[in-house]
């Protein structure tokens, strides 16, 4: 059940949009846009919506995940490397989450992580932190305007994966991508083929490493798995 349906059920159960806005640390106008599916709530807002729905008995307590796969690395300039298609299904590595981090990730449908390398995004992200996104749901790019997201862009060399803040572009179906580190210029009028907002930032102190279990190739984010021949 998505956040729009949860909000609608909460309103049917007696919550007003003003009361929800106060609980979700937002405005009634934002709640109205979410209810009417005019805009997606941010990652923190989604977690709060599910928290309220749990308290209201509209959801069952989610199973707590103890680990997530790391599907790439975020380095200087925000590029994710290596290519997603070359990552095994269990990730380049698995990371064990602390109890507090696991609770944050529990509401995400299919959490995958990208580990920060280097200090190019300090103080927003630190070396060794993990950015968690949800790979289970499609996102409208227009609903991610102003959001920090992991994006895959359409380029002649086969596509790059970046962590950027998405802004409107000057061309149709194109977007400007701002780097967290202002030393890197904004990418103008990029074509995005897949994007998912950063739902949770897991600090390196809340992680421990587990060796990956498999070496099979995983499909690209936003793409269907390829069936084996025959």
Keywords:
230 residues, alpha+beta, 434 Repressor (Amino-terminal Domain), Umud Fragment, subunit A, 12-stranded mixed beta sheet, 5 helices, globular, disordered C terminus
Any overview of this molecule?
- Helices cover 20% and strands 27% of the residues.
- It has 230 residues and is α+β, with helices and mostly antiparallel strands.
- The protein folds into 2 domains: 3-55, 434 Repressor (Amino-terminal Domain); 67-210, Umud Fragment, subunit A, CATH 2.10.109.10.
- Strands 1, 2, 3, 4, 5, 6, 7, 8, 9, 10, 11 and 12 form a 12-stranded mixed β-sheet that branches.
- Helix 1 (3-12) packs parallel to helix 4 (43-55) and helix 2 crosses helix 3 (28-35).
- It is globular, with a radius of gyration of 18 Å.
The major pleated sheet works out as: 12 strands, mixed
Helix percent reads 10-25%
Number of DSSP-assigned strands: 12
Low confidence ranges? 213-230
């Amino acid at each position: 059940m998505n956040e729009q349906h949860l909000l609608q059920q909460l309103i049917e159960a007696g919550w007003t949009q003003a009361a929800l806005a106060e609980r979700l640390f937002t405005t009634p106008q934002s709640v109205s846009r979410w209810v009417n599916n005019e805009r997606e709530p941010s990652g923190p807002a989604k977690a709060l919506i599910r928290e309220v729905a749990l308290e209201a008995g509209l959801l069952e307590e989610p199973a707590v995940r103890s680990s997530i796969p790391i599907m790439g690395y975020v380095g200087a300039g925000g590029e994710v490397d290596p290519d997603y298609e070359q990552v095994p299904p269990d990730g380049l590595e698995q990371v064990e989450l602390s109890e507090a981090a696991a609770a944050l990730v529990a509401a995400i449908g299919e959490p995958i992580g990208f580990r920060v390398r280097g200090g190019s995004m300090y103080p927003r992200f630190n070396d060794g932190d993990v950015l968690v996104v949800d790979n289970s749901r499609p996102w409208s790019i227009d609903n991610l305007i102003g959001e920090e997201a992991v994006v895959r862009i359409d380029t002649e060399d086969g596509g790059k994966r970046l962590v950027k803040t998405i802004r409107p572009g000057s061309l149709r179906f194109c977007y400007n991508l701002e780097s967290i580190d202002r030393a890197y210029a904004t990418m103008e009028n990029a074509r995005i083929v897949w994007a998912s907002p950063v739902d949770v930032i897991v600090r390196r102190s809340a992680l421990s490493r587990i060796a990956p279990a498999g070496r099979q190739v995983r499909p690209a984010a936003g793409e269907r798995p390829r069936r084996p021949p025959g």
